[in-house]
Amino acid sequence: MQNTRQQERRLGDMIRSRLSPLTAEFVMFVLKQGWSALFGILILLAIIGTRAIWQDDWPLARYDFLVIFAISTQIAFLYFKLETWEEARVILLFHLTGTAMEIFKIHAGSWAYPGDGVLKIMQVPLFSGFMYAAVGSYMARVIRVFQMRFDPFPTFHWHILLAVLIYVNFFAHHFLPDIRLALFAATLLLYGRTRIWFRMGTQSRYWWMPLPLAAFFSSFFLWLAENIGTLTKTWIYAGQADGQAVSFAKMGSWYLLLYVSFATVTLVTRSALHPPQR
User: Fold this and answer.
1) What is the pLDDT averaged over residues 56-81?
2) Cβ distance 117 to 62 under 8 Å?
3) Closest CA to 134 of 48, 74, 180, 79
4) Do 178 and 169 form a contact (C-beta atoms < 8 A)?
5) pLDDT at position 242, please?
6) Beta strand 111-112 with 207-210: parallel, antiparallel or unpaired?
7) Helical H runs in 147-248?
8) What are phi and psi of 134, to 5 degrees?
9) Distance between the two ends of the chain, CA-based, in angstroms?
10) Residues with Cβ < 8 Å from 121, sequence gap 6 or more?
11) Contact indicator for 42, 35 with CB cutoff of 8 Å
């Protein structure tokens, strides 16, 4: 981990020596966002690549290869110290909660996985849990890479309670009234004043962004990833025609799920829930 941080600092020093201060900060922001999302980017590249080359008569199913690829990538992240073991335990929790949701949603008819594969649980390919894990990996890494702090932060038990209510509603709305509008309002009420404080390097200034705005931007990029998944026919939403974009309603779903992800990650990053040191 220390070696990785040294490489990041060298890259930052090189960029700052060649660009104006503001341009350098922007370039570092983009590069660090990509670096933080590396696990998810690799999974998306694997989804696109296998769709382009995979043949039905190959002995290994595409879905099964994606499982093997995801596991191998996770092992590599730990071996090369791109993630800590503490972060990996939280990401495993993402995998489990994500797979549980996938099983429920598949049987509720919300979406389907049309391909074959051996590595499935109740019609859900195991690689699907790694897509949720990719979100967890991004959150854990982006907090560390940008030295993020969240302030002012709401009382922690309200933070966890809202995440639980959001997660439960994804199941319960099939049987009970959907309360997502109230949950949207609750995110603004609870986190409306919360700023994400971050910086590009150890000596650079702190920048900030409202937490709900960051969640909105993140949900947009996850919506783009959803479109990659459906265009490659890795999964298909109920009622979605060939070539049709994923409904913008999925952005709302991801916006809410991001708060569940955030609450999960803060179980091991409680030190980030404090004001930044000036």
Assistant:
1) 92
2) yes
3) 74
4) yes
5) 82
6) unpaired
7) 156-172, 180-191, 211-231
8) -65, -35
9) 25
10) 99, 103
11) no
- Tokens 């708060």 sit on residue: 259
Q: How far is CA 147 from CA 80, 95, 260, in A?
A: 20, 25, 21
What lies within 8 Å, CB to CB, of 264 at 6+ separation is 90, 93, 94, 97, 136, 163
Residue identified by tokens 């709305």 is 173
Q: What is the DSSP letter of 178?
A: -
Summarised one tens digit per residue, pLDDT across range 135-175 is: 989 999 999 889 999 999 999 999 999 999 999 999 999 99
Report the amino acid identity of residue 65.
F
Angstrom distance (rounded) from CA 214 to CA 212:
5
236 HSE (CA, 13 A, CB side): 12
Q: Can you give the pLDDT at residue 12?
A: 65
Q: For residue 111, what are the β-bridge partners?
A: 237
Tokens describing residue 78: 């730990």
